[in-house]
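Researcher: Structure for this, please.
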Amino acid sequence: MDATYSPAARCQTSPLGGQLARLGLRPAACEPLISDASLRRFFRLPVGAGQSVVLMLYPAEAEPTVRRHAAVFRWAWRQGLPVPQLFVELRGALLVEDLGRVGAREAVATNPQAVQEQLLSVLAAFQAYRGPCPWNPPFDQELFFRELQQFLQYAGLGKPPSAPVLKFCRSLAVDLTAHPYRLCHRDFHLDNLLASPHGLKAVDFQDLRWGPDTYDVASLLRERGGSTLLPASLVATAAQVLQWEGNWEDRFVQCAAQRGLKALGTFLKLVRQGRNDYERLIPEVATNTWQAVWTLRGPSTLLAVLEKLSARKGL
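Model: Predicted structure, token format:
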């Protein structure tokens, strides 16, 4: 790619470069940070005295998304949720609190007990909220099933997938809507949690919404290293701390199956688009999703595909 059109170059060009300069920031000092699955790009900008902020740079055509995400940031901060503070909304970018360079993945390796307690504290803050969520509609049957479409499309299940696979997915979507609902982060995994000086805080929360009480814990313990870096017993501790209603074990397995299939669909699509860094995430999720689908007596066709993906086959 021509450097003129790179995200780093956009930091230095008008109108964004001019906006940053007027705030006393030096666009040339952009330090690229690891990006996520979206089209946003992230940079660290020094603000003097050893302090810095994070620049969230959006695609040029995404100004409505910027405004909406800024509103979610402000709302979440007002509710006291453990998220970074929004400092400035710019045209095409947001300047937010820099939580530092240590992620939950690194922190849990050095101080597992303390980090596990902080993880539950972050979850408790989200699940304790009881008011309306004005930004995203609650999970419903249609959304649960729609989230599985990418897996059905990219996992090699045939076109169309077999009737038993479709029936299983539709039934799963129906079952999840009967769960007790809490406020969900919706993408709650170790890579979206940073160890700030004030404890763990969650990022990438713009899709938060009401959903199943076990959803975020299923995401935390089944993907992005959660199944190896965190003990499986953490789900039982979460059930106690978060005061889940009875029969949470069955609900957790259902959420683990749906969330796992959804995550695999996202990863498979990104790999197909050339984002090969997501290939390494597939075996862990596929293995854990196989376990959940098997427990739910899912169709053999689906189990066979998950087994292949867990062995890095069929990618």
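Researcher: Any notable elements?
Model: Strands lie at 31-32, 41-48, 51-57, 86-90, 93-97, 181-184, 193-196, 199-202, 209-212. The domain at 104-310 is CATH 3.90.1200.10 (Aminoglycoside 3'-phosphotransferase; Chain: A, domain 2).
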